[in-house]
Amino acid sequence: MKFATLKKSLLYIIIFLILVYFATKVFIDSQVKHQNGLNTPVVDISQFNISDAPVAITNISVLSTDSSEMLDNQTVLIKNGLISKIGSELQVPGDYTKVDGSGKFLIPGLADTHAHTYNSKNDLLLYIVNGVTQIAILSSHPEMLEWRKDAKNGAISPQIFLSTGGLNSKYGFMSVVRSWFGSHPGINTAEQAREAVEIYKEQGFDVIKAYEYLNRESYFAMVEEAKKQHFPVSGHIPEEVTLDEIYHSGQSHLAHVEELVKGSMRQYNALDNRKNLSYLQYLNNNADDIAKKVKAANISISTTVWLMESLPQQRFDLENFLKTIELEYENPGVIEGSVFASGWLPGSNRYESQVRDLSTEDREISRQFTDEYVQAIYIMTKALVDNDVILLAGSDSNTAGTIAGFSMHDEFQSLSNAGLSNSQILHSATLAPSKWMGFNSGQIAEGMRADLVILDNNPLLDIKNTRSINAVILNGKLMTREVLDDILSQIKKANNSAREISIEQYL
């Protein structure tokens, strides 16, 4: 009798545990789905009047291939997705859609070389609306390989360059948790690192991404195997790896200028001792040397300066910061976060949370450190451009405060603040990233893919003029300002239908 009772009790316990498991899985799946933007309806692009007829843009000023000047009174003919002819005295065939470019300016489509989209497909449209026709998604999942395929097959999407998810070393239960969120479960040994390289290479990703918590053994095994596989390495500088080792590692791309700042701060012990504000003098004395070594190693760098500029406000004045960005266009799932991921709003913003519980004295120390950190980013960025390092404009979109597409224009202003000329900024957002990603675009020349932006004002005179978008041409398809505004309206409508937390106070 006792045995039968015990068996019955064990059965109930097993059933209970199974129910708990499935309930937990359903809960986790719902949270992940929400925070990745999957609860927001995808805008149907077929509703918009997008023409694929041949296009002739007449009497327009065209950005030169070196981004240094505008060439006046040009006619640009576009057919079958390519720029077919450019000249000042061209005859326009009768079957071409004519666009009068008088008083306007033509630049190549822009690039964001550090993008995150989660699963928010409407972000692809936000990029296009903002003139961004190429993106590098620097932490992606296998399903995004289909996004890239669709883009190649003519979808209304930027051209897509895909990085793997960031490779980190995680142990025990945290390794399992990472796998729930679509990340690699954890790279803890050299053998696992080599295996990851083989898997991701076979899946078809463009680059493999190192993250800051990847252990030393795994990192060097990864870059060694990646070199054998002809698989470029991108990402962060792991905490256990020094700057001098990075120069000789074979890693060909860094995801942030910030990586060099953090690496030099580790050398100077400034990350551990935040009361030590003499680091800026150290960096002033050493930034050129760092930049020269980066140049010699042929390492390219995505910028992400604006995100760093936003840190003082996000940490210490978040309410007012949120009023300065186009919050209504950000996927509400990303803004609101979940129990597993931080959002953007007060109470869940990860930058605000870093200082929320500090004493008055420690808050002031953190404020000073944050201000000095931004200055360090400026110093390092200027040193890189002065030493001809390949800088690639990137925004770290969908990180708190950075909205797909819009954030690139914020980034341009930040690069200007750091000392880049408008010509250098445009080069970093057009030809340089196109070469890095291997796309046939990034300059206005015959035979190039017709990814173009018509502006009302000259960006060489004021970089803010990249916002004055009159029309976008994507793979030869013309999208007028009216179409772009209609797309924005539908994205806002989709976001509002999925919103769980009001953002009215920030609009």
Layout of strands and helices, then pairs:
Layout lengths: L1 H34 L19 E9 L6 E10 L2 E6 L9 E4 L4 E4 L1 E6 L6 H8 L2 E6 L6 H9 L6 E9 L5 H8 L9 H14 L3 E4 L5 H13 L4 E3 L7 H5 L5 E2 L3 H11 L10 H18 L3 E3 L2 H12 L1 H5 L9 H5 L13 H4 L6 H27 L4 E2 L13 H12 L4 H8 L1 H7 L14 E4 L13 E6 L2 E4 H18 L9
Parallel strand pairs: 1-4, 1-5, 6-7, 7-8, 8-9, 9-10, 11-12, 12-13
Antiparallel strand pairs: 1-2, 2-3, 5-14, 14-15, 15-16
Helix pairs in contact: 2-18, 5-6, 8-9, 9-14, 10-14, 10-15, 16-17
Structural notes for this entry:
By secondary structure, this protein is an alpha/beta fold. It has two domains: 1-35; 112-441, Metal-dependent hydrolases (TIM Barrel, Alpha-Beta Barrel), CATH 3.20.20. The chain has 18 helices and 16 strands. The longest helix has 34 residues, at 2-35.
Rg value: 24 Å
Q: What portion of residues belong to β-strands? A: 15-25%
* Average pLDDT: 92
How many separate helices? Answer: 18
Query: What fold name goes in the CATH topology slot of the largest domain?
Result: TIM Barrel
The biggest beta sheet is recorded as: 8 strands, mixed
Shape: globular
Fraction of residues in helix: 40-55%
Number of domains: 2
CATH architecture of the largest domain: Alpha-Beta Barrel
CATH superfamily of the largest domain: Metal-dependent hydrolases
| Helix/strand class | alpha/beta
The parts where pLDDT drops under 50 for at least 5 residues are none
What's the CATH class of the largest domain, please?
A: Alpha Beta
Quick rundown:
With 507 residues, the chain is of the alpha/beta class.
